[in-house]
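User: Watch each token:
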Amino acid sequence: MYHFVSIPKYRRKVFPESYSEAMKVIIQKIGYDIDIVELEIPEDYIHMVLRSEPKMSSSQIMQVIKSISAREFFKLYSDIKRRYFWGGELWTQSYFVEIIRNATEDTIRKYVQNQLVELDKKEVHASQLGLF
């Protein structure tokens, strides 16, 4: 099992509610013996917990997910590609991956599920600092 985090190029907030649902559907349909266990998509990144056969490395898994999801997302929303991603790339080259073995699966799944709740809590308590 793997825990992945990836962000869009330029850290654009391109996944409001309607777009994040479309991206979830796209990622769920990828296949390639990749089983998506948990998937959460805030506005500017994605969190995934997935299972895969050991025949694919974590970098190959992420390459498949990023390439297929970008291609399908841009087919649906070509206006976003023109407006924000003039280079044609949806995802940055970097990502975070963690192999889940020390933590229990339930712990990681709850962490991913609670990402939006935690972000909302931080935004409520955050305030703009004054200059003087």
Notes: The chain has a mean pLDDT of 83. The first helix runs from residue 17 to 28. The chain has one domain: 2-125.
